[in-house]
Amino acid sequence: MPALWIAHVSVTDEEAYGKYAKAAGPAIAQHGGTFVARGARYVQLEGKDRARNVVARFDTLEAAVACYHSDEYQAALAFAKGASERDLCVVETTE
User: Fold this and answer.
1) What is the overall mean pLDDT for the chain?
2) 8 Å CB contact between 5 and 55
3) Is a pLDDT exceeding 80 seen at residue 14?
4) Residues 6+ apart with CB under 8 A from 2
5) Reading across the β-sheet that carries 52-58, which strands appear in turn?
6) What is the CATH number of the domain that holds 71?
7) pLDDT at 95 over 90
8) Which residues make Cβ contacts (< 8 Å) with residue 53, sequence separation at least 6?
9) Is 76 in contact with 24 (CB distance < 8 Å)?
10) Structural element, H or E, at residue 5
């Protein structure tokens, strides 16, 4: 069953986070992820507002989790740590 990787992000260091974004995209693509939304317009209706919202689609929940734990993504994530506050979850779709 397909799954969505959903991230809500507040960037605190644009330069470092830019390095993360540059490296994370190819890592996500390498694991079959495709971006559905990435920093697009949004309306916060409930909860904590984070200015950057990203949704990527993967073939399975397991593929999304494997991507997160991959060496390539973890190398990219090192740039985001200390440069952002993030919430990230992976949820299966109902397709």
Assistant:
1) 96
2) yes
3) yes
4) 57, 58, 59, 60, 92, 93, 95
5) 34-38, 52-58, 3-11, 84-92
6) 3.30.70.100
7) no
8) 6, 7, 8, 9, 37, 39, 40, 42
9) yes
10) strand 3-11
pLDDT of the residue at 39 = 85
Per the CB < 8 A criterion, the answer to whether 52 and 88 are in contact is no
Per the structure, the complete domain to which residue 37 belongs is given by 3-92
Q: Look up the pTM and report it.
A: 0.91
Using pLDDT thresholds of 50, 70 and 90, give the confidence band for residue 65. very high
In this structure, what are the phi and psi dihedrals at residue 62, rounded to the nearest 5 degrees? Answer: -65, -40
Q: pLDDT tens, 24-63?
A: 999 999 999 999 999 899 999 999 999 999 999 999 999 9
One-letter amino acid of 46: E
For the chain, where are the alpha helices, taking DSSP H only? 14-30, 61-69, 71-80
**Cα separation of 61 and 64, whole Å?**
5
Number of structural domains found in the chain: 1
